[in-house]
């Protein structure tokens, strides 16, 4: 736990953009652990927490939260700069579900008691959250979820199973979508519950993925008693809140940072493999480069909307589709030029920057998670192009 | 030229609105169809109207008689012209206006800006190039809508400078070829002894004007893409097969979603390049921005236009149905002012490596 008292007193919104950028950049470079830049895997809490606490101490953990809730209250334009600098330096994503999901959820829909209890514990790092959304039979079709919560006096009794719960082994709290009305239409019987992971009846099992990493987990709920006061908002009205939280994910997943990172590694690999000057490689490389540049331009148009304080519409799905598929095409090219190194488990020559297999395999789930690209195309087709259902 | 952003979005909106006069967005192609394979292949009255609306001198300074606007307005206008399939050589005329304004040549500039005289620049000596060698005795090829020219401008090398000469079209040796969309291009074999001198040293302006024409052409392509895609969506929403509206088939929905992504990428590339030029980009920065936009427009443009034919099925392959007119225009402009490959190579040769 940290003392978060020496909060940034100056209103950073008053700084000129470029001065603010320099301020953030300088601080990140002085405080982010160099050996954790662009980590090849999602970091666990024990690796991540020194950085989390640094941010917390500085008062920069929650740049977007209003100041009265302990955030920095940054205006959208400044938040964008903040994120750009974090991405530019290759800082690892923290265990950020509390910051980007639970915080905004409670600030918008929580009771004063919930806000008072939970928000400070996110800011101090006492509570690390995981997201209980997907289920074995509710993946792309999330609203089909069946984990149920039945009211029993002043508690809900929760039974069911969640899956693909990111870093659940690190979390001590879970925000959970549960079915509270089995007779309503599937979107209309869902509620939001906040669950202490130490409650009896909860079992967490890591899933080993194709990277041999244990980032995702299964979480089982067996007669878990959750205080009714931990329900957020109105019973059976959790779906709209859940969907709103996912819009963060779609712009995050559409950021060019992963493709840009892979692209720099592609060049290093091409030079190492001696194909850099090959005309066929240069054609492919040029096409990928322009795809990346145009993705940056398109991303810029969405960022510009955020800067103006607008809410993003369903067309943000375009970014997720193009970014994740470009990331894959770049890593496909890496694998193709890597020769037999394409099959090696570890980075080539002990050099983390020459890691075609690692990036290739990491690029695979990008088109699946956060709403598969097929779902994103359904969204575009129905909600943007107006094609019939 | 430096206008506040709000001001700019207002001028762009006004330009778009005014375009409806010449290129009805409702999609009536009667005028365009009637002009195909005629001589000169476009309507000089409409060209004059474009002059009256201030379009030919859109990016020419107000001092020189233009509208004093920039590339953001020019690409918006080119997009509307593309969506309406107007065959008038507006982009080549804007290029000529840029050169004449720089040369401070009032004699040809004034009638061109008014739309009373069609002045076309015969700069090109081979296919797929942006280079202007200015070889004095080289035939000048692919002059768009040359059948309607009243005068030609010719960049001609003199030592290490490029001079600009003007030649009356009457009596000039112009060999015409028909283009896929019903227009024409000409090969000019100029008798320079008949030409008048307009400027002594205009090489840098020619390069800039060609970049602007390439970017405007990318905007024109964007207009074709948007309109053809709009027609295709309307078709997907109404056409029935197997007792169902074909737009309910997921394979077609996903294809449409992908085409939308390509259109969005093209718009982002074109509009960001226009903003860069309006912010004063010069040299390699300008060239890289233009190449990025023209590459995307040529590449994604033809992809979208040919997929619009496919999504229509057999009716899309008929001359009678309008969607094919967009593909045919796309084929004519895709490589004008540089193909996707040319611009990709130029971008890669110029662009700073963005490597951490």
Automatic annotation (TrEMBL), chain A:
Needed co-factor(s): FAD
Protein's UniProt keywords contain Oxidoreductase: yes
SUPFAM superfamilies, per the entry: Acyl-CoA dehydrogenase C-terminal domain-like (SSF47203), Acyl-CoA dehydrogenase NM domain-like (SSF56645)
Alphabetized UniProt keyword annotations: FAD, Flavoprotein, Oxidoreductase
Record domain Acyl-CoA oxidase/dehydrogenase middle: where: 130-224
GO molecular function: flavin adenine dinucleotide binding; oxidoreductase activity, acting on the CH-CH group of donors
Transmembrane helix among keywords: no
Single GO cellular component term: plasma membrane
InterPro entries hit by this protein: Acyl-CoA_Oxase/DH_mid-dom, Acyl-CoA_Oxase/DH_mid-dom_sf, AcylCo_DH-like_C, AcylCo_DH/oxidase_C, AcylCoA_DH/ox_N, AcylCoA_DH/ox_N_sf, AcylCoA_DH/oxidase_NM_dom_sf, Mycobact_Acyl-CoA_DH
Domain Acyl-CoA dehydrogenase/oxidase N-terminal: 16-126
Acyl-CoA dehydrogenase/oxidase C-terminal domain location: 236-384
UniProt similarity note: Belongs to the acyl-CoA dehydrogenase family.
Protein name: Acyl-CoA dehydrogenase
Organism: Neoroseomonas soli
TrEMBL record, chain B:
Keyword flag Thylakoid: no
Acyl-CoA dehydrogenase/oxidase C-terminal domain mapped to chain residues: 205-342
Keywords: FAD, Flavoprotein, Oxidoreductase
GO terms of molecular function: acyl-CoA dehydrogenase activity; flavin adenine dinucleotide binding
Cofactor(s) named in the record: FAD
Domain Acyl-CoA dehydrogenase/oxidase N-terminal: from-to ranges: 10-90
SUPFAM superfamilies tied to this protein: Acyl-CoA dehydrogenase C-terminal domain-like (SSF47203), Acyl-CoA dehydrogenase NM domain-like (SSF56645)
Family: Belongs to the acyl-CoA dehydrogenase family.
Name the UniProt record assigns to this protein: Acyl-CoA dehydrogenase
The species this protein was found in: Neoroseomonas soli
